[in-house]
Amino acid sequence: MDKELKQIQDLIIGASIQAQKDRHGAISPAFVGRVDWPAECTVGPGLEGAIACETEIGYVNGTQGALYYRGYRIYDLCAYANYEQVAYLLLKGKLPTPKQLTNFSRKLTENLFMPKVIRSLIGFDVEKMSPMASLNLATTVMKQYFDDSIMDQKKAQKNNSDDFIGTDEDSMGMETLPFGEQKAVYEFDAKKKKRKVDEDKEKETFSACCHLISGLATCAAAISRIRQGLMPLDPDKNLSFAANYLYMMTGKRPTAVEEKIMDVSLILHADHGMNASTFASIVVASTLSDLYASIGAGISALKGPLHGGANEQVLNMLDGIESPEAVAEWYKNATRKKEKIMGFGHRVYKTYDPRAKILGPLAHFMTDYAGPDAKKTLQIAKNLENEVVSTLGKSKGIYPNVDFYSGIVYKALGIPSEMFTPTFAVARCSGWTARVVEYLATNRIFRPRAIYTGDLDREYIPIEERRKQQ
Ligand code: CMC
Fold first, then answer.
1. CA-nearest residue, atom 16 of ligand 1
2. N or C: which end of the chain has fewer CB within 10 A?
3. What is the CATH number of the domain that holds 391?
């Protein structure tokens, strides 16, 4: 193995060993294993503590600072697997065999080619929208082309012809024949009980998941380039998912180190319990809307600065601090004004977020290559971390979360800061799709309650008489 790749692996293994030591003696949360419905739990505002469903996909242990995908520790997946394996694991429940991985990787690569979708996006003036709004729009466009391709396929089957998806009259320079799945179903049964397995339908749904996972990567990269006045790039079918993402966005084929770091970052962001965007996706899916609309809802929820939008805000915040020496004063002012420090705190973790434990050392590793500005930013980040952890860490359990170091890593990889949150969305798509599909197997429409605190039985006053009241 390349010396630098081995160093990265050692960093992750080192973080894992440290995490084991740190969690020694921490208690486990109460809910692991099956619950009897209706489940009893204490619910706080923002549905804190509420149980929405059962899942086998991923587990966050907030007191121990541990994260598992399908029972595998996040550290092991980052050290030894790649994003393709992790996406397969999330969707299918087990790690792929070499043959399954080859087929799955090929399917993802084929789905990265989507010239018609990109051409439609160009027509929407995406340079004037926020990148997350454009990415959301992309899911709508993708659905439309999927529906069209299904219709076309049906016609083609009738006419005994298979030449339907690639024929395209107004091709552009970037055009490459698409290899996208020609058949996928992303509508779901309304049954409440676990469905009988319909293998064809499962295959079709799986294809739609792959279409979305790859499609978001291609669209995010294209959106970034369009916003810079550059032409979108076709993927390179010889590159991995992580390498292709960087290549399509930056126009440069990444080094093995850059590819590995992008890959680890994609893995770390792939899934994370019942967070706001996953919940939003599932809520939309529970109405038997479609998978594309559900992922669009996830993108919309992720956009907010309290969720995925924090990664861009963190870098803005760090850039706003003049020097490493100025951190203490800056922090004093921020706490005096009761400002929230971006990239810190978490609803579930009251200790270090394990993803930050990996991304911190990776940021350090990357900035060794990235010049004095990156080193300065990293030093500012480290000083801020020390300030926050030694004060809010002790008093309120506030520590760095995944978003604190991810921006520094992304910047060193050449990703523009406005694309940090879309990059999070690209990675999270495997978790969103896996959880939506899992939820729909036993679907029940979401319908929580709100406590009404308003008046009742108010007297209706005709509009002519209301002016007097003002
Ligand atoms: N800086 C300063 N104080 C904080 C912070 C912070 N980043 N986060 C929480 N607190 C304080 C908060 O003021 C409150 O104090 P008090 O009890 O005295 O009023 C206490 O800690 C509890 O905070 P909360 O906002 O009620 O906690 P929450 O579980 O509702 O919110 C959070 C979790 C992530 C929204 C919040 O910690 C936050 O706003 N962090 C900054 C934004 C951020 O980094 N978001 C990324 C989250 S991780 C990745 C992801 O989900 O996308």
1. 396
2. C
3. 1.10.230.10
Instruction: Indicate whether 371 belongs to any domain.
Output: yes
CA of 396 to the centre of ligand 1 (A): 10
Strand, coil or helix: 232? coil
Query: What is the count of structural domains for the chain?
Result: 2
**pLDDT (0 to 100) of residue 167:** 32
In this structure, the answer to whether residues 78 and 96 fall within a common structural domain is yes
Would residue 49 count as lying in a domain? yes
Cβ neighbour number for residue 453 with a 10 Å cutoff: 5
Global confidence as pTM? 0.91
pLDDT of 169 strictly over 80 = no
Residues 6+ apart with CB under 8 A from 389: 399, 400
| 400 C-beta closer than 6 A to ligand 1 | no
Task: Evaluate: CB of 402 within 6 angstroms of ligand 1.
Answer: yes
Question: CA-to-CA distance for 79 and 12, rounded, in angstroms?
Answer: 6
Q: What is the pLDDT of residues 108-163, one digit of tens each?
A: 999 999 999 999 999 999 999 999 999 999 999 999 988 787 677 767 777 654 44
* Pairing relationship of beta strands 58-61 and 66-69 according to DSSP bridges: antiparallel
- One domain for residues 170 and 184: yes
Residue 448 maps to a domain:
no
Distances, alpha carbon 315 to alpha carbons 50, 102, 181, 293, in Å = 33, 37, 38, 30
Q: How does 406-415 read in b/e, with b if 16+ C-beta sit within 10 Å?
A: bbbbbbbbeb
Residue finishing a domain among 367, 394, 412? 412
Query: Domain check: are 357 and 270 in the same one?
Result: no
Cα of 306 to ligand 1 centre, how many Å? 8
Which pLDDT does position 179 carry in this prediction?
46
Q: Note whether 148 and 106 are same-domain residues.
A: yes
Average pLDDT, the chain: 89
Cβ 312 vs Cβ 425: under 8 Å: no
Domain region containing 349: 312-412
With residue 444 as reference, give the H or E element that holds it: none
* Rounded Cα distance, 406 and 361, in Å: 11
Residues 342 and 426 in one domain: no
